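Quick illustration for those who missed Monday's session on complexes.
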Amino acid sequence: MNEVDDAREGESDDAPYGILVVDDEPGILESLELTLASEYRVFTASTGEEALAILEQEKIALIIVDQVMPGMTGVEILERVSERSPRTIRMLLTGYADMDSLVRAINEGRIYRYLPKPWEPDELRMDVRRALDAYRLAWENTQLAGALADANARLRAENVYLRGEVEGRYSFDGVIGDSPAMQRVFDVMKKVSETDATVLLTGETGTGKDVIAKTVHYVGPRKDKRFVAQNCGALPDTLLESELFGHKRGAFTGAHADKQGLFEVADGGTIFLDEIGETEPGMQVRLLRVLQDGEIRPLGSSETHKVDVRVIAATNKDLEQAVEDGRFREDLYYRLRVVEIEVPPLRVRREDIPALAHHFLDRVSERMNRKLAGFTNAAMDRLTDCQWPGNVRELENEIERVAALAGDERVVGVEMLSEHVRGGASRGGASSFTPAVSGEGNMADAVEALKRHMIVGALRETGNKTRAAEHLGIPRQSLQKMIKRLEISDDELSAE
Ligand SMILES: Nc1ncnc2c1ncn2[C@@H]1O[C@H](COP(=O)(O)OP(=O)(O)OP(=O)(O)O)[C@@H](O)[C@H]1O
Ligand SMILES: [Mg+2]
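Prediction with adenosine-5'-triphosphate bound:
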């Protein structure tokens, strides 16, 4: 079935999501079914074979498999599932014993998340809800692609062409971005890389403008020629002029020999003018001339000559505002933004955070010779919740920091993250409670203690249950139930 048919099939389908639960213990199947059956269509299977058979018959959005089973292990089952039904979200139910295979499975993308055993029903429901959100998003993307394909199909009855367009999700080596926001960027990058059009990259610091500039060059027809970059904010005007356009011997004190400028070095290739908003008026005029006529004149020379250079410029400033304030030439602005690519901040594409985090962790683990191969659920939640004002660069630095300070841990836990990532800069505002729980003793008790600690902290801080529940990221009813079960008293809440 191709993607378009698949999307159409989904359109008429507003039945509840199908969830398949696989475990050889009837008791576990039963309690998972109880937890989920009110909201979803739940199917159960006690062996891998049975599960795969159900998968053939039913539309399954999410599959939850126990890791330890006779016959195929959970990971093996999920591997088969990912081949047969790639869009089904895969979760693994597991105790802590099999951390190794677990981490491997997460990193190889075979599973979306693991559910610890024993589980807390409310937490499980929430994980399931999140997973299904991800499923829905992925499905909506396909549906959009499907709609696009339909429109195209009417225009040109060229099936072969279409299939390529619809199925090809854009990807560039080493540039991560499955989020719709980044896919839109990739879409423009792909188109523009085949042309010589001048590109203006805008976006906050650390969003990936450098990476995008390089990629546009290296996937385009100029890839065999040079890509040169110059930060226009780093040098005083005259030096910048000499860097970009070159100079003749004797053009200024210290110019002992002729020097080739970067525009000449990049002839046939691409020049990347970073921080273009920092250029002074004189430089702006000279840049305008190159863009208009393709001509440069080295400092101290009376002759101009032609160059064939593709220009990509970038800024993290508001250039339009700079034009309005008279700090940036309007004509240059329009020459630069023939194609403008706005690189979105990381906080509007949080879906990309897990893949980015894994990417950076793999890279740095190898470089620093660490065993780190993944993140705990909680740590990943913190990373995804963080605001990241420094965007991808800040995330990258965080992961490097974690790796640098790590010992022989295999997974990154919350306690290894920096203070502000752990709580301070989260979406819901500052959180001041850092649970102090020792790593010893019975785990169930420790978990209870941690819950109590967080709940009391949130209630004290917010002063009401609705806000506390929001703060904790759980439904209000669950909070209510936990307060009751943990016997948290009003006295405890007012005590300091
Ligand atoms: N989509 C991405 N996939 C992988 N790595 C990325 C991505 N975006 C950014 N990075 C990494 O994040 C870091 C910051 O990116 P980059 O230098 O391109 O940002 P920038 O927008 O140019 O920032 P500034 O405005 O401060 O110059 C780099 O190390 C880059 O490799
Ligand atoms: Mg940059």
